[in-house]
């Protein structure tokens, strides 16, 4: 970006464009400065740059020459633009009118009598924390506008108070737990519902000895002259706010629903029975995901949460974080609905991630897995069906928990480390997976790499197994599939092979999990073609053994089910053939027995 010298700066009210760079990305970069007419912008800051599109250039030039205020922007029309990083950038945004409404709504929410006391001056010697606005243009999963959100947060990094870890820790559930919740909804016919608590942290009470003063963000002027507030309830950004809100939500659950138990392995998950019906609640910061089969239980929860917090009810779950949730249902004769299939679309999260790292998916569509020998950049193919959806449908014929683990051998050409891959299914529904490098060891042979991969997989799967056994004691051991028969033998035999004694001790825990009284895993050998974790360890060809690998991975349930049916049919046919042969052999045996008896009788007569 061009930089103007201080002597060359021109002062306009409230802004002036002093330098322009033309970028090949069809965007122009403008450096914007404020003059002394802005009461909070007496100094020029070269770091406050605004990224705007060419359509905004004429508007800013007119604003510069017209000597007008940013609040007098001509239209409320929504213009898609990057989120402002500072209050200054929000004032110069073409969406300033909407941002201004969001800011005022946020400040009004903070200054409610039970949350904070506004102040016009801070007491001498008091601890005052600065704050800032965090602007976010909230969108729905389809990309349409949801709302303009301005969050006033404290600068927690400026607080010099020492806090213990227990005073700042706040649990947050993993996405694996969320997918497990959806899987339980399908297995127990529960409908998932979504509640969103508005300004959740501002509903958590701060102990009197921990309260603090907050100064309003730089640039913001309150109409009544308030410069800050004395906080009675938690504010976003403070290091203790997460813990205070977590304790508030936990008290709500224990006071209103004593029959629900908090999971030991994921403190945001509550499972229990209400009026004989299974009831599950998952808390993700300010989102409450409620799963139940009885409408009366949901109506009771609805009344309780609405009377306790300021919450929004979204109905049946259709969005969680950046995931689009599609719940397909069927209706019983009684009029109650239950889910039969749930689809999770990752399209928005993937496209946002590509945009963040400047990956043009239109010119270079991702092909995953990549074709062997394919050179980069990837040429645009004639047609690619991009499917970012994870479909979940119960398959009762499969084991309750089925894990797959795999590893390549020395796949990293720089360090010669191997890559482990793992995926976990719950009744045929994929709920957990990962792919990572074996950083702590360099495998000498493929069996060692597979052994380490199986050990790492066995450290991830027990979290789900323990959660299930905590509430459903009849949970079955995990069937872990591996395509290396030597590994299956090593983890089940009593003696440790001398060829594996150099492996770190931490990897031998898998032997205790696969044998003994505390068995959690049942190792099973499968062919490489059926190992679903193979896709997480290496770049596979588009087709493998004549079958599209993506179709093979996504249609794993159907494929394995067909294989299982064929195997069962073969076993039944073999048993029937064996029985038929035995029935045919029986008369012959009887005939031979009669012949022998007659022979013995003749011998006795002769004797």
Automatic annotation (TrEMBL):
Protein's UniProt name: Reverse transcriptase Ty1/copia-type domain-containing protein
Species, as recorded: Cymbomonas tetramitiformis
Residue intervals of the Reverse transcriptase Ty1/copia-type domain: 122-330
Coiled-coil annotated spans: 557-584
Keyword annotations: Coiled coil
CDD domains, sorted: RNase_HI_RT_Ty1
A Pfam family reported for this protein in Swiss-Prot or TrEMBL: RVT_2
Keyword Membrane assigned: no
Lineage: Eukaryota, Viridiplantae, Chlorophyta, Pyramimonadophyceae, Pyramimonadales
Keyword Secreted: no
């Amino acid at each position: 970006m061009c930089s103007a010298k201080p002597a060359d700066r021109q002062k306009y009210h409230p802004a002036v464009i002093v330098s322009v760079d033309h970028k090949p990305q069809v965007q122009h970069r403008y450096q914007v400065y404020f003059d002394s007419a802005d009461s909070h912008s007496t100094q020029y800051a070269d770091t406050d740059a605004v990224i705007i599109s060419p359509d905004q250039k004429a508007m800013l030039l007119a604003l510069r020459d017209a000597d007008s205020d940013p609040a007098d922007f001509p239209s409320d029309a929504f213009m898609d633009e990057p989120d402002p990083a500072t209050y200054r950038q929000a004032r110069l945004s073409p969406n300033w009118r909407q941002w201004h409404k969001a800011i005022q709504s946020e400040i009004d929410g903070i200054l409610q009598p039970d949350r904070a006391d506004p102040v016009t001056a801070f007491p001498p010697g008091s601890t005052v924390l600065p704050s800032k606005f965090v602007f976010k243009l909230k969108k729905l999963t389809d990309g349409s506008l949801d709302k303009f959100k301005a969050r006033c947060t404290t600068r927690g990094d400026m607080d010099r108070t020492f806090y213990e870890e227990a005073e700042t820790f706040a649990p947050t559930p993993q996405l694996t737990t969320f997918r497990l919740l959806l899987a339980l909804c399908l297995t127990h016919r529960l409908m998932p519902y979504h509640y969103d608590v508005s300004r959740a942290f501002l509903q958590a009470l701060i102990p009197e000895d921990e309260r603090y003063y907050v100064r309003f963000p730089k640039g913001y002027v309150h109409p009544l002259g308030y410069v800050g507030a004395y906080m009675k309830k938690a504010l976003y950004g403070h290091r203790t706010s997460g813990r205070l809100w977590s304790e508030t939500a936990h008290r709500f659950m224990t006071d209103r629903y004593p029959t629900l138990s908090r999971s030991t392995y994921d403190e945001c998950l509550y499972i229990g029975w209400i009026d004989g019906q299974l009831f599950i609640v998952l808390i993700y910061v300010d989102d409450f995901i409620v799963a139940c089969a009885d409408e009366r239980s949901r109506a009771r929860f609805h009344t309780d949460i609405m009377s306790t917090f300021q919450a929004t009810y979204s109905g049946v779950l259709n969005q969680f974080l950046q995931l689009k949730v599609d719940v397909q249902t069927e209706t019983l004769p009684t009029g109650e609905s239950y889910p039969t299939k749930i689809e999770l679309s990752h399209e928005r999260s993937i496209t946002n991630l590509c945009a963040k790292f400047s990956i043009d998916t239109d010119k270079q569509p991702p092909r995953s897995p990549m074709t062997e020998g394919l050179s980069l950049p990837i040429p645009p193919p004639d047609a690619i069906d991009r499917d970012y959806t994870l479909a979940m449908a119960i398959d009762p014929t499969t084991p309750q928990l089925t894990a797959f683990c795999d590893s390549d051998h020395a796949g990293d050409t720089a360090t010669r480390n191997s890559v482990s891959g793992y995926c976990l299914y719950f009744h045929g529904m994929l709920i957990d997976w990962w792919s990572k490098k074996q950083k702590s060891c360099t495998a000498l042979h493929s069996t060692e790499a597979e052994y380490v991969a199986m050990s790492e997989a066995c450290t991830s799967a027990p979290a789900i197994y323990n959660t299930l056994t905590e509430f459903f004691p009849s949970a079955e051991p995990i069937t872990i599939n591996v395509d290396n028969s030597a590994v299956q033998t090593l983890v089940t035999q009593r003696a440790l092979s001398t060829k594996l004694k150099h492996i770190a001790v931490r990897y031998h825990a898998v032997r205790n999990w696969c044998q003994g009284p505390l068995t959690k895993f049942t190792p099973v050998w499968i062919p490489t073609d059926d190992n679903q974790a193979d896709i997480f360890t290496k770049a596979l060809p588009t087709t493998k053994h004549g079958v599209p690998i993506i179709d093979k991975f996504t249609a794993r349930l159907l494929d394995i089910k067909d294989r299982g049916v064929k195997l069962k049919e073969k076993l039944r046919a073999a048993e029937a053939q064996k029985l038929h042969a035995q029935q045919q052999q029986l008369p012959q045996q009887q005939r031979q027995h009669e012949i022998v008896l007659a022979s013995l009788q003749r011998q006795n007569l002769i004797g």
